[in-house]
Structures are given as structure tokens and as C-alpha cells.
Specification:
Helices cover 38% and strands 25% of the residues. By secondary structure, it is of the alpha/beta class. The protein has one domain: Rossmann fold, CATH 3.40.50.300. The strands form 2 sheets. It has a 6-stranded mixed sheet with strand order 6-7-8-3-9-10. α3 crosses α4 and α3 runs parallel beside α5. The longest helix is centred in the C-terminal third of the chain and has 18 residues. The relative contact order is 0.16.
């Protein structure tokens, strides 16, 4: 793959080391995520996929290395300067992470209340637009998370992630727990939103169907390192785990 111009890099990870409880997950890994792409991250359980995501959005402090987000070195930022970068990022956590005592509309408005002084009427209007964008009906706004199906909660969480019109979207196992039809519909939604909103998407997933439907490139965490490619190129990789993941029985069953 040809090198991308420097200005096209949205996230740059250099020499990242992550240690949890004395165990090294990432050993000096380098990775660039380019503007406008969907990069999917895969790896075995315990390989540090979610830790990598959390490190990029400032929830996990690396043991060493450098992470630049939208041209800003997170190591050199704190307080308002760090918040200014992070509000340009939307995050959908695996379980949706919705507040159970708030309606769906109130959940979507949470980032607005935290980071803006918008009047309530305008927040209501924005929440309505975001819910429509993710394919939820108008009556979902007044419901509580417990009243929604798993797929609808995912969509509500996605609406909240988009509340502040972010440039970067982070998805942690977005189709986990969904039936195949709902997962395929969510994959299509992610790709449509990425194209229409010109988002850069960083997605942790284990779902081969999602990889095929959405990803432009795939980063594989293996042996504390990282390898980047496409499904086609990674299927030719000689590493046993990578080869089995992309060519094994589960992979060929989804062709």
C-alpha cells in the first residue's frame, strides 16, 4: 500500500507500550489511522484491543510511547486542551453504556450538557436528528434503555456518540450480541454514516462479517506487535493465528 500524505493522518501511534499488572500487551507498536477510513482492530482475547482504543481516547495511560490525535500529542495535553481534542471524538462502548435512569433523548444529550451551553429546545432538536440518523423511530426518544432491544440500544449509543458532530468515531465490538440480520444492518449503518459524515472510524471487532462489510484496512494485534493489511493480504500471512483467523473454518463459512 502506498504511503499516505502526512496531512491525511488522523491518529498516529508511535512506539506504544502498554502494560497491565506487569503483563505487556503492546511492545513498541506503531500505527497510523488515515482520515476518512474505517480501520478495524482484531486479535485474540487478551491481546489488548480495547486497551488500545482506551489509550487513544485518553482513558488508559500508556507505559511508553506517543499518541497523536488530530495533530495533538496527548502526552502534552491536560485540562481544557485535552477536552478540546476529545470532544472531537465519539465513542460507542460495547454495551452501549447508556444511563438506565435517563430517557434515550436525555442519553443523547449528555455530551451536549457536559460540553456546551445549548438551550434545551435546541438539544431536543439535535437529539431528534441524531436518533433519526441512526434509524430509530421518533417514539424511541422518550423510552428508557431497558425498554429497547439490544440493537436499538446500540443505535441509541451511536446517536450519543455522534451528538457533538465528531471527526473521529470509536466503536468497541459494535455488533457483539446482535443477531446476524441486526449485525448486518448495523454494519451498513456504520458505512453509510462514515461516508455521509466523512468520519474516520477506529473499530474493535471480532466479527468477520463486519470486517468484510465495513473495513478499509485491518490491524491485527498478535504477539504484542501489530500487523496491518486487508483481508486478502492478511489471509496470506504465515503467522499461525492470523492465517487461521482469516482462512479457518469460521472464515470460510462466511464467504
Amino acid at each position: 500500500m502506498s504511503a499516505m500524505p502526512e496531512q491525511d493522518v488522523a491518529i498516529s501511534i508511535q512506539g506504544l507500550v502498554s502494560r497491565i499488572g506487569g503483563h505487556t500487551l503492546h511492545d513498541h507498536i506503531d500505527l497510523d489511522i488515515f482520515r476518512g477510513e474505517i480501520l478495524a482492530v482484531v486479535g485474540s482475547s487478551g491481546s489488548g484491543k480495547s486497551v488500545l482504543l482506551r489509550s487513544i481516547i485518553g482513558l488508559q495511560e500508556p507505559s511508553a510511547g506517543r499518541i497523536e490525535v488530530l495533530g495533538q500529542d496527548l502526552n502534552n495535553l491536560s485540562g481544557d486542551a485535552l477536552v478540546h481534542v476529545l470532544v472531537r471524538c465519539g465513542v460507542l462502548f460495547q454495551d452501549g453504556a447508556l444511563f438506565g435512569d435517563q430517557t434515550v433523548a436525555q442519553n443523547v444529550q449528555t455530551p451536549m450538557r457536559e460540553h456546551t451551553d445549548l438551550p434545551q429546545k435546541l438539544m431536543d432538536e439535535i437529539a431528534s436528528v441524531r436518533l433519526s440518523m441512526v434509524g430509530l423511530p421518533p417514539d424511541a426518544a422518550s423510552k428508557y434503555p431497558a425498554e429497547l432491544s439490544g440493537g436499538m440500544r446500540k443505535r441509541a449509543g451511536l446517536a450519543r456518540a455522534l451528538a457533538l458532530d465528531p471527526e473521529l468515531l470509536f466503536l468497541d465490538e459494535p455488533t457483539a450480541g446482535l443477531d446476524p440480520i441486526s449485525a448486518s444492518e448495523f454494519d451498513l449503518l456504520v458505512r453509510e454514516l462514515q461516508q455521509s459524515l466523512r468520519l474516520t472510524v477506529f473499530m474493535v471487532t471480532h466479527d468477520l462479517g463486519t470486517l468484510r462489510a465495513t473495513s478499509d484496512r485491518i490491524a491485527v494485534l498478535v504477539d504484542q506487535k501489530i500487523k496491518v493489511g486487508t483481508i486478502t493480504s492478511l489471509a496470506q500471512d504465515p503467522h499461525p493465528w492470523i492465517h487461521e483467523y482469516f482462512t479457518g473454518m469460521r472464515a470460510t463459512a462466511q464467504l
